[in-house]
Amino acid sequence: MDKFFVWFVLLVCIPTVLLHGQVSKGILLAHFNQNFGFKELNVDYSHKVVSLQYVLNSRIIGSSSLSFDCELLPQIAITFVKDSKGSIFSRKGVEIGVVPGVSIRKSFFSNTWALYIGSGIGPQYTSTTPDRQKSGFLFSNTVFGGSRIKLSNTKSLDLRMGFRHQSNASLAQPNGGINALFLSVGIMMI
């Protein structure tokens, strides 16, 4: 991950979201997996995650129709790990972390529907991982795209999909990394 992006997220996005007056808040339920039927990652392990995520989102620049936003995504999750896809044994664990990120959002139809793309990086603690990755402190890197559909003056439905890579930046071995696709759905409050 580019060092500029990491420093930008840490020095601009986190203070913007925490100190800015107009912050959208929401709850997302996410599912991480290596296979969603329409797309499968070519990996030899299974690392499924069900995550509850709290979203804090704030516009840095732009208007209601086109904006550059920052977000914080604190999350807690349950993990289900198999060291090989064919294994019948599954280990359970937990993940906890926060992923700050940036996104570009474009609204359509009088701001009733929006599309966005973004990326984030942040620290996590993971109790259980496939053998290829040391459990404990990890970094979570995500790229995502999504849509928000206005339900009322104060609520929007948020649908998101993306890719996540977790590793520990070679702070400990093994550091083979864990890759996953994800889908999430939730409600944002304006």
List its traits.
190 residues; mainly beta; Porin; 8-stranded antiparallel beta barrel; globular
List the uncertain runs: none
Tally of structural domains: 1
Q: CATH topology, which one? A: Porin
Helix content: under 10%
- Structural class, from secondary structure content? mainly beta
CATH-defined architecture: Beta Barrel
Average pLDDT taken over every residue: 90
- Spatial strand sequence of the major β-sheet: 1-2-3-4-5-6-7-8
Question: Could you name the CATH class?
Answer: Mainly Beta
The helix/strand order is HEEEEEEEE
Relative strand content: over 45%
Note the gap between the termini: 31 Å
The description of the largest β-sheet is: 8 strands, antiparallel, barrel
Count of alpha and pi helical runs: 1
Give the total of beta strands: 8
Care to give the gist of this entry?
The chain is mainly β. It has 1 helix and 8 strands. An 8-stranded antiparallel β-barrel has the order 1-2-3-4-5-6-7-8.
What would you say this structure looks like, in words?
This protein is mainly beta. It has a single domain, classed as Beta Barrel (Porin), CATH 2.40.160. The protein has one helix and eight strands. The chain has an eight-stranded antiparallel β-barrel with strand order 1-2-3-4-5-6-7-8. A hairpin with a 4-residue loop joins strand 4 and strand 5. The longest helix has 17 residues. It is globular. The two termini are 31 Å apart. The model has no long low-confidence stretch (mean pLDDT 90).
